[in-house]
Amino acid sequence: MFSILSGAGVGVKLLVTVVFLVALFAIRAAISAALRRRTPASVEEQGQERRRFWVRQAVQVAAFALLVAGVSVIWIDDPSRFTTIAGLVTAGLAVALQRVVTSLAAYVIILRARVFTVGDRITIGGVRGDVVSLGLMQTTVMEMGEPPGAHSGDPEVWVNARQFTGRIVKVTNDKIFDTPVYNYTREFPYLWEEMHFPIGYGADRARAESILLDITRRHTDPIVQQAKPAFERLRERYYVAEQSQLEPRVYLRMTDNWIELSLRFLAPVHGVRALKDAMTRDILPAFEDAKIQIASTTFEIVGLPTVKVETR
User: Fold this and answer.
1) The domain containing residue 243 runs over which residues?
2) Helix, strand, coil tally for the chain in percent (to 5)
């Protein structure tokens, strides 16, 4: 194989290299044009889009492999020298491009171990969002906001909910070796959420708990039914404690000023803010009808002492 251009001059090899590169990139561009992305409008089209993405990934890897092999065939005359040159080049790359090699290795691990894929909602390197592209070196994430108490990005995000900020963030793949990777959707696409309601010590606690549970069940019962099969599959693969419950619960906690009712319920990864908004819009009128007031640290001044002013 290495004797195809054996004895040819540098000019000939250079010309063949140029022709080879032009042909390779032309083929790659043609395949990319055929797989041009369009916005999926249905679940079936979303599946087709994922298949197109992985075809594009395979094309990139194949093009890189052909590039290395083709240039080697053109420029290396003696096959016995190939092993020596390959060893020297590999050693040099390992030292000079350590982060690049690590990112390539991380890319293989991401695919092989199914750490995450396109469409998953993850947190990696302090960035949380949906994976929109997975490359050989970098993972592209559509960033989303976080609650104020969970801000971990640098810089911090300004959207105080799990909704997109509009920023596209590129994270090198080698971050999987340095920081934890949180995957919200890979194996169990649900989260346990909490909402907190402080009420006074004189309020009807039983009535408040009943209102919270009734409204929460009305909004989350379909979610719980959908989550049960996924939860069973999760328990088959991992050790999950028996006390993990999918149905909503209310927990009480005494404080110096009020009783805090913590409402715990299951929610899908996507659409948490809309779910909590709908529940809140039902809970507030129900509390008002039951004469249950939300406690707060607001002070009301009802009177002032008499002030006597003397003048000389």
Assistant:
1) 190-289
2) 50, 20, 35
